[in-house]
Amino acid sequence: MAFEMVGVVGLGTMGAGIAEVFARAGIQVAGVEADEQALARGRAHLERSTGRALDKGKLTPAEREEILARVTLTTSRADLRDADLVIEAIPERMDVKAELFAELDRLCKPSTILATNTSSLPVTALAAATGRPDRVVGMHFFNPAPVMGLVEVVGTVVTDPGVRAEVGDLAVRLGKTPVEVDDRAGFVVNRLLLPYLNHAVTLLDHGVAGRDDIDNAMKLGVGLPMGPFHLLDLIGLDTAYEIMNVLFDESRSDRHVPSPLLRSYVAAGLLGRKSGRGFYGDPGDGPQEKA
Ligand code: 3HC
């Protein structure tokens, strides 16, 4: 498939980043949001991210304009009719996502591949909401999408192997490395990463070490780009908590019990960068960039 035009539904941090990745690869993008306010946030995200690349001399002003011009922003899902692939990046609510997939199935041409960027919900259930389950896959990007080099290509028991392969080839065209994963909770990365992040919160909760010391230990001792608390703030504490719950639901293992401290932060609305404060963002930490 040529993948000349793709749709991205949901232009939050991940959706806007994914739209940018496609546009940078020369592909026309229809970016869909629920209302004008959400569209404006998506546009601002794209402008900020490409502006950062411009400031660093990684894009010329003309290249930046070309990338932005490739993204058409719209509130009408009907604009996705002729897309070769539509990727969904809306909040992680199964009922809303299933409704969206059923609608995309009705709207889009029969050959359109329907993909989800979900990090925690079963791709199989979304496929079952459509009349084309063989053309539904997970296409899981990592935050920040324009920077991280991986795409998990998630296939279900009914995914057409040819579709899976085409999506893998598309990921390569986007400059990413695809890995093929079956539809199991957390796929590969979150299944390994989230228990580690959750355990860092448990160490903090038990007073084994302080936030900054744990972050420094993992950055300097293991060579990670970010310590676990900075990374939790980037991912979003609500997202992290949700993924832990999904891992626990599938495994029923003590290893996957979400930390009570993580739950408290989420309940208090301290969600990380997206809310302005998480493990970092106290007045003493200086300003934290909102995603
Ligand atoms: N959007 C676009 N570009 C960004 C960006 C953003 N939000 N944040 C950073 N960048 C770019 C910068 O422009 C810079 O680009 P350049 O190399 O072309 O100049 C590059 O990334 C490096 O940025 P900085 O020099 O400003 O900062 P760092 O060197 O500290 O890197 C980082 C920032 C790339 C975020 C790095 O700290 C990192 O890799 N952190 C780990 C991120 C990670 O693990 N992500 C996966 C999370 S798990 C996930 O997403 C799954 C989900 O389901 C939960």
From TrEMBL:
Pathway: Lipid metabolism; butanoate metabolism
Domain 3-hydroxyacyl-CoA dehydrogenase C-terminal, chain residue ranges per copy: 186-280
3-hydroxyacyl-CoA dehydrogenase NAD binding domain: residues covered: 6-183
Keyword vocabulary terms for this entry: Oxidoreductase
Family: Belongs to the 3-hydroxyacyl-CoA dehydrogenase family.
This protein's name: 3-hydroxyacyl-CoA dehydrogenase
